[in-house]
Amino acid sequence: MTSGALIIAALVYTYGLRIAVGDSSPFDYFGYFTNQTSLLASIIMIVTGSLTLAGRTSPPVLGLWRGIATAYLLVVAVIYNLLVPGTGSAPPWVSFLLHVVFPLYVALDWLLVGDRPRLRWRSFWALFPYPAVWLGVVLFRGATDGWVPYGFLLPERGAASLIAHIIGLVLAVAVTGSLVWGMSRFRVTAGSATRAT
């Protein structure tokens, strides 16, 4: 719960810095997959933690979304650290927090905290609509107003480059999703079944 609130605070702080230099568009700031998925994961952690503190069980759909957010953050970590390290306008500590610390924390939370559900493979398809919509919006904006959040999605790089990167993104989601779905089948010891805050 606390970690989710801290990430939201970091996102708000960084957005405030953008506003201060005259770049106040929320569509640009929240057009970044990192910012969207960090916000999504933070909200899920806050809701899940609140239910736990209230002594209530999280509904299965919340567990599914927690798994999906975990997979997305693993994609964020891999792509940022391998393809676009050190880029962006956020302070270095914020980039490190969002692209290294938070994805690692969420992955460990998923693996080690025993309150996660066993995800069914028939729900695996639920990983793909969100990135598909995000890519569609980004490509539309790139073709119309020229804004894209990441340089490898620039239209001027050509269709072959775009297709290769889109396929790479889809494969990355599939691989990290498979890891998350697989991890949901491992049970941890009873002593680690309390949710971390």
Care to describe what's here?
The structure is a single chain. This protein is 66% helix and 0% strand. It has 197 residues and is mainly α. The chain starts with a helix and ends in a 14-residue tail after the last helix.
Give me a quick take on this structure.
The chain is an all-alpha fold and 197 residues long. The protein has helices at 2-20, 26-29, 33-53, 60-83, 92-112, 129-144, 159-183.
Observed structural traits:
single chain; 197 residues; mainly alpha; 7 helices; globular; disordered C terminus
Number of strands: 0
Task: Please write the string of helix (H) and strand (E) elements.
Answer: HHHHHHH
Shape: globular
Specify the helix fraction band: 55-70%
Largest sheet: none
Task: State the low-pLDDT regions, or none.
Answer: 190-197
Average pLDDT value? Answer: 89
CA-CA gap between termini = 5 Å
Radius of gyration (Å): 17 Å
What is the count of DSSP helices, taking H or I runs of 4+ residues?
7
The percent range for strand residues is under 5%
Protein structure class: mainly alpha
Q: What order do the helices and strands come in, and which of them pair?
A:
Layout (H helix, E strand, L loop, with lengths): L1 H19 L5 H4 L3 H21 L6 H24 L8 H21 L16 H16 L14 H25 L14
Helix pairs in contact: 1-3, 1-5, 3-4, 3-5, 4-5, 4-7
